[in-house]
Amino acid sequence: MNTLSSRDSILKQDKSQVLFDDKPIDFGFPEWQLQEILRLWHQGKSVNYISKWTKRNPHEVFLALYEAWMDRKIDDIEKAFSSGAKLMIPPGKGKVKK
User: Fold this and answer.
1) Which top-rank group of organisms is this from (predicted)?
2) Is the pLDDT of residue 92 over 90?
């Protein structure tokens, strides 16, 4: 669902939020880099390892893997939430506010 577009949005702009708007995340990837991320993932490398290898923000690597999971190119996205992946969460940001 595209809620914010050039035409009338489904959500009123004053009652909606653009995700990742204030984060230093680059959503553009060269095709070779996406292939490298998938190759390393299939080799069992962690999000943090892939991030260091490709010199990308770990959040960008995760989002690339998440899109690959949505496109059914990988089926083990849950692996990104275990072991080394917890380093992705900044201190104090792991708790959900009610």
Assistant:
1) Bacteria
2) no
